[in-house]
Prior knowledge:
Elements: H1 2-17, E1 33-37, E2 47-52, E3 57-66, E4 82-91, E5 97-101, E6 109-114, E7 120-126, H2 152-182
Antiparallel strand pairs: 1-2, 2-5, 3-4, 3-6, 6-7
Amino acid sequence: xxxxxxxxxxxxxxxxxxxxxxxxxxxxxxxxxxxxxxxxxxxxxxxxxxxxxxxxxxxxxxxxxxxxxxxxxxxxxxxxxxxxxxxxxxxxxxxxxxxxxxxxxxxxxxxxxxxxxxxxxxxxxxxxxxxxxxxxxxxxxxxxxxxxxxxxxxxxxxxxxxxxxxxxxxxxxxxxxxxxxxx
Length: 183
């Protein structure tokens, strides 16, 4: 009986640990989106607008805000009226494209990115940098990484080991009870 149980558990373990796992080598296209770094604007400090997951072809970056003039995405401009400027860059086959924006003033600016298919990828207003300190930097959103990833097979192996331990304890108790009743 014990040999059959051990054989069945061994086969179950081989099936669980040897089962199909996801193909991590297969490249999955990233979801379309853009990031701006640094995310708060300071006069004269370049901000890089980086986009991924876009269709290949022309991508239009538009910036609206105080002091914006044609060419501001490539250089510093100095004017006080709110206006807009656009630049077109080509997204590669990998869907990545970026443009550099150097704000002429420390102010809030609206950024719009339209991909080759005419879809608006991002349209948002980002704030001016605040404070006069020199420490720290703006960072993107999202949660911090707080631990590692454990595969499902390892978790199930642990659950199986605990289950086997429980079965062994129950069998030992049953055997002792049976031996004490017959004596």
